[in-house]
Write a structure and sequence with these properties.
By secondary structure, the protein is of the alpha/beta class. The protein has 2 domains: about 130 residues, Aspartate Aminotransferase, domain 1; about 240 residues, 3-Layer(aba) Sandwich (Aspartate Aminotransferase, domain 2). It has 12 helices and 12 strands. The strands form 3 sheets. A 7-stranded mixed beta sheet has the order 2-8-7-6-5-3-4, sandwiched between helices. A 3-stranded antiparallel beta sheet has the order 9-12-11. Strands 1-10 form a two-stranded parallel sheet. Helix 2 crosses helix 9 and helix 3 packs parallel to helix 9. It is globular. The relative contact order is 0.17. The structure holds pyridoxal-5'-phosphate (PLP).
């Protein structure tokens, strides 16, 4: 019998994501409404998906270049120029990855030494903290506070930087808060990164899911930033292709070559058919994404208005992504207990804010990647359930 079934030392402080438990509840309770999902509830147009079957018929079922299919990299380089005026070299400054998730891991594994401090948003996407720890680094929380519209504060960043700080992770539009940053706010953060000589991992996977007059600016387009920024992006959210696992990262040659090395020995190359589907998504009309965002916008207003009508919740209007992050402190329960309460009493599944970090305590994340009718029903159920708490 094998008796040494224990995890490696590096996994010692890694816990299962707090989101998983609530995902599992959704499958256990078929009558529940699942508002915990982090993926669009739309399907990409058939024209885009057909590129996958066509590629298979064309025999594209073999290894592709490590950094990605040539035509896809060319299309990505054109996208960076078209959207942000950024010029990247097609051979050495763009890398196709297994979703944004792999790109984040490549950056952390390639750049973080044991003991290096990495500034991460708190609350923040669930991958950042374990990712930093697995790479041997020390996560340092940058609080995203409701009173500051969930924006990273330049003052906080400046005071958190030490001589061990090496990397800062920024994520706007933000998961889980729905916050975005203005041009001036990004410019101020960029100035600090340049002054303190930090590498920035800028997670921009929600770049196209942004509302009203808010505009997305790529961090690499600010003065002094192209040479120190890894721009992480993905097809998951923009084209509703989470399962195809395809993302990409732009960066200066010196940094990208490091990520390339890790990528080469971990995944060799990204799934070939997904790459042809992604290529097809970039070409031609982008109408699918704008229609999706229009519908998200309608739902955003519904969720925001209804939550604020229900006594006990107070909810800021999200400016990006497809999440609302209401304050639930008035209910006097920790967020995990409150999410459990909603599952048991309203049959509505949300994610406790604490799953995203200590500063997420006192909030829950509600994904509005569900139909308008389901959201209406879920909010009615929530209203009825919390009504009993009074
Ligand atoms: C902020 C953020 N970054 C990155 C990702 C990774 O997405 P994927 O690996 O599907 O591209 C997600 C997914 O939820 C996310 O919310």
């Amino acid at each position: 019998m094998v008796s040494n079934f224990w995890p490696a030392e590096r996994l010692k402080h890694i816990k299962t994501s707090g989101i998983r438990h609530f995902f599992a509840l959704a499958t256990e309770m078929p009558d529940s409404i699942n508002l915990s999902v982090g993926e669009p509830d739309f399907s990409p147009p058939r024209r885009i998906l057909a590129a996958g079957s066509q590629a298979a018929r064309n025999g594209k079922t073999h290894y592709e270049p490590t950094n990605g299919v040539d035509e896809l990299r060319e299309a990505l380089v054109q996208k960076a120029f078209h959207d942000y005026g950024l010029v990247y070299n097609v051979n050495s400054e763009v890398l196709v990855t297994v979703g944004g998730t792999e790109a984040i891991f490549l950056a952390l594994f390639g750049l973080v030494n044991p003991g290096d401090e990495v500034l991460i948003p708190n609350p923040g996407f669930v991958v950042y903290e374990p990712g930093v720890r697995l790479a041997g680094g020390v996560p340092v929380s940058m609080p995203l506070l409701e009173g500051r519209d969930f924006k990273v504060s330049v003052g906080d960043v400046t005071s958190l930087i030490t001589d061990k700080s090496r990397v800062i992770i920024l994520n706007y539009p933000n998961n889980p808060t729905g916050g975005v940053l203005s041009f001036d706010e990004l410019a101020a953060l960029a100035e600090v990164a340049v002054e303190r000589d930090l590498i920035v991992i800028s997670d921009e996977v929600y770049e196209k899911i942004i509302y009203d007059t808010a505009k997305h600016y790529c961090l690499a387009s600010f003065r002094g930033m192209r040479e120190r920024t890894l721009v992480i992006n993905s097809f998951s959210k923009t084209y509703a292709m989470t399962g195809l696992r395809i993302g990409y990262v732009y960066g200066p040659r010196e940094l990208l070559s490091i990520l390339w090395l890790v990528h080469q020995y971990t995944v060799a190359c990204v799934n070939s058919l997904s790459q042809y589907i992604a290529l097809s998504a970039l070409k031609g009309s982008q109408g699918f994404t704008s229609c999706m965002v229009k519908e998200f916008d309608r739902r955003r207003h519904l969720v925001h208005a209804r939550l604020n009508e229900i006594g006990g919740f107070s909810c800021a209007l999200p400016q990006g992504a497809f999440y609302a992050f209401p304050n639930i402190k008035a209910f006097g329960m920790p967020s995990e207990e409150f999410s459990e309460f909603l599952v048991r009493n309203a049959r509505v599944i949300t994610v406790p804010g604490s799953a995203f970090g200590s500063y997420g305590e006192g909030y829950i994340r509600i994904s509005y990647a569900a139909t308008y009718e389901l959201l209406e029903e879920a909010l009615n159920r929530i209203e009825k359930a919390v009504g009993k708490l009074k």
